[in-house]
């Protein structure tokens, strides 16, 4: 391999690493449109930091907090809650679920989420 090819490969690798450091969401962007399964709990989604000056409003937009600490919107929450009513009833509680479905990455204005899961299935981990 020539020195020129090695230099190009090194520059490309450095560029990829710099992109990952600057835009740390690459794994989520790469998951766009894929099937994922996330274990976690139902929560009120947190607002984007700095979006609303002063105290946070009191409304609760239901969402999912994975065990990885990331928040997700559930795109078809009303529909999937008919199959598993405990899902919406457990917001803010300790009940854990595994939600599986199609992940959509996106930028969201109001809430600090990495994307939306259109759930195909919900599994209760341990009934509380």
Notes on the structure:
By secondary structure, the protein is α+β, with helices and mostly antiparallel strands. It has two domains: 1-31; 33-126, Beta Barrel (OB fold (Dihydrolipoamide Acetyltransferase, E2P)). The chain is built from four helices and five strands. A five-stranded mixed beta barrel has the order 1-2-3-5-4. The radius of gyration is 19 Å and the shape is elongated.
Largest sheet: 5 strands, mixed, barrel
Named at the architecture level, the CATH assignment of the largest domain is Beta Barrel
Query: How many individual helices?
Result: 4
Number of domain modules:
2
Instruction: Choose one word for the global shape.
Output: elongated
Mean pLDDT across residues: 78
Strand order of the largest sheet: 1-2-3-5-4
